[in-house]
Every structure is written in C-alpha cells, then in structure tokens.
Amino acid sequence: MNVVPDTSVVVDGRISRGVEDGTYEGATVYVPEAVVGEVEAQANGGRQTGWDALEELQRLVELADDGAITVEYVGERADEDDIKRAAAGAIDAIIRDVAAAHDATFVTSDIVQAEVAEGKGIDVEFLEPLEPDFEALAIEEYLDEDTMSLHLKAGMVPKAKRGDVGEIEYQAIGEDALDESLVREYATEIVSTAKRADDAFIELSEDGMTIAQVRDLRIAISEPPFSERVEITAVRPIVKTTMDDYTQADALRERLLERDRGVLIAGAPGAGKSTFAQAVAEFLADAGNVVKTMEKPRDLQLDEEVTQYTALSGSMEKTADSLLMVRPDYTIYDEVRKTDDFEVFSDMRLAGVGMVGVVHATRPIDALQRLVGRVELGMIPQIVDTVVYIEAGNVETVYDVTTEVKVPEGLMEEDLARPVIQVRDFETNVPAYELYTFNRQVVTVPLDGESGGAGESGVDKLAKQEVEREIQAATRDRVAVDIRGPNDAVVYVSDDDISHVIGKGGGRIADIENRLGIDIDVRTLDERPTESAADPDSDTDDAQAGEIVTPEITSRHIIVPMGDDRAGETVEVQADGEYLFTATVGRGGDIKVSRGSTIAEELERAIDTERMITVVPNA
User: Fold this and answer.
1) Could you give the CA distance from residue 399 to residue 420 in angstroms, rounded to a whole number?
2) ω before 335 within 30° of 0 (cis)?
3) Distances (CA, A) of 229 to 157, 169, 210, 601
4) Topology adopted by domain 138-235
5) What integer pLDDT is reported at residue 504 of this predicted model?
6) CA 149, CA 319: separation in Å to the nearest integer?
7) Are domains 2-126 and 243-446 of this chain identical in fold?
8) CB atoms near residue 112 (< 10 Å)
9) Which CATH number fits domain 458-532: 3.30.300.20, 3.30.565.10, 1.10.10.10, 2.60.40.10?
10) What is the pLDDT of residues 504-521, one digit of tens each?
C-alpha cells in the first residue's frame, strides 16, 4: 500500500496513529518535500501547527526504524513563492502530483483538496477533521475568583492583581521563581489552544509578541528581543454588571435611548471603564439597537448578539468603513487612545452612528480635552455630548456637553462674544467648565473653583498668562502683570523696554490690546508697589529661596524640569539671582524653550558659564 499524506493529516498526526492501529501498517509513506517546506515555514513563523507537524514526521521515522512502515521523501520542495501562495492551492497542487506519480492513496482531511484530487482521478481517503477537546489551560491553576490579571515571568515568582474593583492589589502568589522552560511550555499551550479551539483566536502575532483570546482570558506573550525575558500576562474580567448597578442609571438609560449619542467613558486604569462599557452595550442591544464593537484586542465580554470587530488588515479606519455599510445604531470603541482613534471615532459619529468610546483620563474634563487639537473646537459637542467618569467601579461624574455663542464667563465686553463649549454637571445642570478660543489658543476655564490660585479665578489666570506672553515677545528683560479687573491690566517692564513695548505713537500696545480685548497700562518695574517696597537685593534673596534646577539641552529645546505638580504655574527663571524670563510650566511638568530664540541663547550662556539656575513663583 502506497500512501501520500497532505499537510492537514501530518499536522494532526493521523498517519502515525493509522500505523499504530494497523490501518497503514507495512505501507510505504511518500512524504512530499512540499509538505516539509510548508510545515518548516510554519514552525519558523512560530505557529504551533508547524511544530506539531515536525513531531509527526519524527514519529514516522521512528516507526520506519522499527520496520512498521517505509518512509520516503519525494517530489519538489516548495519554494518561498509556493508557500506565499499556499492559500491559493500552490502547495496542494504539488502534493497531488506526488500522489499521482506514485500511484498512491492520497490521505487528507481538507475537503477541497479531496474533491479536487478525486476530480483528477486520484485515489483519495478523506478523514474527517478532528474536533480537539481542549481542557483548561495550565495557567488557570493560578487563578481564583478575585484574580483580575496574572503575571508570569521567567526567573520571577508568579504574581497577580487580586481584589474588588477599585481595591485591586498586586501581590505575589507563589514562593518559587518560574523556570524559563516552564513559562515557554505555558506559552506553547496557549498559542496551540488559541489556534485550534472554537472559543479562542490569535489577535496579534508579531516577532516577540503574541496576543491571544482564550475564552474570557486575554493573554499577551512577550519574548526576546521584544522583552528581555519570556513573560505571560493574562487578564480577565472579574465583574459583570448591568446598568442597574450604577448610580444615575435611569437618567443615563433615558439619555442613551433619547437619540444616538456621542459618549466618552473615562477613568484611570483599573477603574472599571470596560466593565461599564459592557453594561452599556448589552443595555443598548436589549433595547432593540444594533450594537457592534471596535476593539484591538477584542476583550469585552458580551452576549453573542453583539458582534465584536477588530482592526481590519491592521486598520481601524477600514473597520469603520465596513461598519458604515453594516449601519449599526451604536458602536462601542474600546479603547480610544491615539489621534487615529479619535479621528475614526469622530468620523463615525458625524456619519450619524451612536458612539461610545473608552478613554484613559484622571479627571472627567481630561477626556474631553483629548479631542482638543484633533478636531475643530466647534465640532466637539456634535462628536461628544456626554462624558461618564468611572472611579472605583462607580459612576462618579456625568457631564453634559453643549455649545452656544456668548461672552465667556468672567469677561465683560460684548465684542468678546464667541462660540463657547459649556460643560455642565448632568445631575445638577451646574456649569463646571467652559472651553473657547482665546488669542488663537483653545483654553479650558474651570467655573467651580478649581483654578488652584487663592483669590485668582481661572479667567484671571488665563488673562495674566496671555498678557505676559504678548508683552514678553516685545521685551528682553523682566515682565510683571497685575490683573485689575475683567478688562484691565497693568504691565510692568524695565526702563529700557518701556518705549519698545508702547511703540511709536502707542501702536504696538494698541495692537496687543486689540488682540487680547483688554486695556493695558504700561509702567516701569520701579512703579510696581511690591517692587518699590522690596529690598534692593531681593532678587538674590528670591534666588536663594527658589528651586534650583538642572536644565537639559536637546537638539531643539532647552528643557527646565519642574514636576507634574507644577503644571500650569507661572514662574520666573533666574541665573544667579538675575531675572532671565517668565514662563508657564507645561502639562508635562517642564518648561521648554526653543533653541535659537533670544531667551534660549541667554539661558544657554548662563548654563555654559555654570551660573546657578533657579525657578521662583511669579510675583
């Protein structure tokens, strides 16, 4: 009896089992070199099917050594082009030719291959594909009902995050360090199961990183060179909720069903954002809406009625284009992080699809600010009209987002009216923030006392920063600003700079006043009350009391590190007590000065001459 197996039965080990049960005992097994080339490429690519096939070929050689069968490798080896065209039948055709040339029985579990071979007059034995019975993964022994995530790393003790939502603790769950071979064994089992089980799939497969979904476990496997050691991270939901489990549930349900909405669900990592998103998705589906999801990777645990999509050909934009053809009522986008994600979210929302996006944010307003700069300011309420902030598994804050043309809160002149985005507390309808364009910049002004300055409103702080920025551009020395009212400011500059700031016939200061919409009185620093009362050596005293910093010089900037807690603060930068410039600390907790500017040159000279650089709060 002559037998030619194709790749499908080599992978599942059917030939060696057939020899052992007597079906193929004494047969000559012609193994096509095309099969060897295909499974070798699979193994090199990290696919478990390739490794399984290589084990089967080794078993056949062992059976041949025992005299149970004869094994011969025949035919042409599949080249790179054949392997690339395997899905189109290139390798299948080579294998069929081998069977015909050796007058052998062609054994396959591929129904298409069997039908084609029969059509060519080849003797075919079709074996029904095996239905593998997958048991629990070995790593599931580490899990209990309170385990949210499992962390296994070669050379380290196993660890896990356990506890209730909002009270998760990262803790060791073993005493002995894991051997690398054991972690790799776990990884092999996970990949094999993900490729073969009906309730599992491979979400991502790149050199050094594989992400698999096995039942309710999302598992990331990293290995060198991507990570320094083999590591397995398995995450699963530990809580499944409904809308009834949250505060403001009735109001939120009514709002979501009133019309298609644009919703951002925000919160810190582990706060329960995805859990709430699942509850929203199932509520909307139960209410008769067509609901789909966009996830990469897919890890929301939802009823089968909700179809879950991932990135199509690696692109969420292509997924969105496909979804627009499906025309869902609502789409759950988990997670919206990069600019491309926000653009896709916005495009779908403007196309009329209800959108629910999950974003990371440490404050409710931060979720909305993620859209600033990515879409036009006036479009934001059309894209997002609701922000739900989750903290410790509960709905902490809900914002209603609208727009109207008005004079921003704190300003008085009617000609300062402009489109203003109002962010209101959904429960109390009390305004919390306003977003608008001020001097060509988008600003966010808190209306609930969160400005952070004692006695200084958010508008006052904003106006002071903008006036300082405008005046500083026309000076080389120190600038101080006092806001005297909603539309009045006094600016103090050095004697040398005062004429330059005012300009010929008052032209320069008039231009600045027109741009800012505020009246500015220009005076010398000596006229400032706090300056005239100060000790002549007060600059040195301030330097001694200030914070000593070590600037970093890059190819494009000089960076003065301040710390996240100083973000938004207006400070003076000094060198050995001598004023250099006034600046506002950025969101990243540092001050960046573009190299090539006058200020940067002075600061760089101070650094080169080893002068002490200090930062003091602006008076």
Assistant:
1) 15
2) yes
3) 13, 24, 14, 45
4) Beta-Lactamase (3.30.450)
5) 84
6) 29
7) yes
8) 10
9) 3.30.300.20
10) 888 888 888 887 778 888
